[in-house]
Amino acid sequence: MIALAVAPFAAAQSYPDKPVRVIVPVPAGGTPDVVARMVLPGLGSLLGQQMVIDNRGGAGGLIGAELAAKAVPDGYTLFFSSPGSLVILPYLQKQVAYDTLRDFTPVSLVSIGPFLLIAHPSLPAKSVKELLALAKAEPGKINYASAGNGAANHLAMELFKSLS
């Protein structure tokens, strides 16, 4: 999702007349960063202005989201994020320095990506049903990787674990 930081602005017909900063709340190479780097050149060409990516990873996206929320509401700062920073983190963190509904204006849904459940070939389970049975038979022995605590894929796997 791309969101304008803070309140909507009154756009002049010459907008944008300078480069637009795009805060991405993950380090370079994270999924939102990769998608931003695929999409933003086209947006820059369409608008006739450079889109400058500002990676601000850390704290599950909180650092970038807080920075974007504090940006001047002039339309020259965009926030390119997955749902984690705006939807999940406010419920997982004791305190965040922004209010998603007050401080951000949704602009566009940019991409949708599926979650995949894959396992090493040495795992004896060859189906989801077999994996659940194995997890029930050997609690605590199966591990998974995710983008981090509170990430959508982490919450999806915790839900999956609750089924075993």
Briefly note the CATH topology name of the largest domain: D-Maltodextrin-Binding Protein, domain 2
Estimate the helix proportion, in percent.
25-40%
Task: Please tell me what the overall shape is.
Answer: elongated
Estimated share of beta-strand residues: 5-15%
Which CATH class of the largest domain is shown? Alpha Beta
Let me know the number of strands.
5
- What topology, given as strand order, has the largest sheet? 3-2-4-1-5
Q: In the residues, how many domains can be counted?
A: 2
- Alpha plus pi helix count: 6
Q: What structural class results from the helix and strand content? A: alpha/beta
- As a whole number of angstroms, the C-alpha radius of gyration is 19 Å
What is the terminal separation in angstroms?
Answer: 33 Å
Instruction: Describe the sheet with the most strands.
Output: 5 strands, mixed
Q: Average pLDDT value?
A: 89
Low-confidence stretches: 6-10
CATH architecture of the largest domain: 3-Layer(aba) Sandwich
- CATH superfamily membership of the largest domain, which one? Bordetella uptake gene, domain 1
Order of helices and strands: EEHEHEHHEHH
